[in-house]
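Lab meeting, item 3. Inverse folding demo.
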């Protein structure tokens, strides 16, 4: 998706349908995760609670049920990441994993 030297300049729009949920601007890499600054968009408030629930998930989850429930609630939102470089968009939790905590995000695909 990105050539040598481009890895520090990636930008994506987090979209729900045609609504902009937020913008992610990469500032670093912690393999295999892209570290991003997150700027909320007009539709952020409609999905905020689900991302905050995932960020707040702590402690053991032996059977994975708590994690699965939180991730399912995000998957049900139908979110996708749209790169600004005309690369194909990616569906959350199908083609990539996104975790947002305040103004930072971690993206893995």
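The presenter then showed the designed sequence:
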């Amino acid at each position: 998706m990105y050539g040598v030297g481009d890895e520090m300049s990636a930008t994506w729009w987090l979209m729900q349908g045609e609504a902009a949920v937020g913008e992610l601007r990469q500032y670093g890499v912690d393999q295999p995760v892209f570290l991003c600054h997150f700027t909320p968009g007009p539709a952020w408030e409609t999905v905020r609670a689900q991302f905050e629930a995932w960020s707040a998930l702590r402690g053991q989850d032996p059977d994975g049920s708590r994690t699965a429930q939180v991730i399912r609630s995000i998957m049900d939102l139908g979110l996708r990441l749209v790169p600004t470089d005309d690369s194909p968009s990616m569906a959350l939790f199908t083609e990539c994993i996104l975790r947002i905590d305040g103004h930072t995000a971690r993206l893995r695909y």
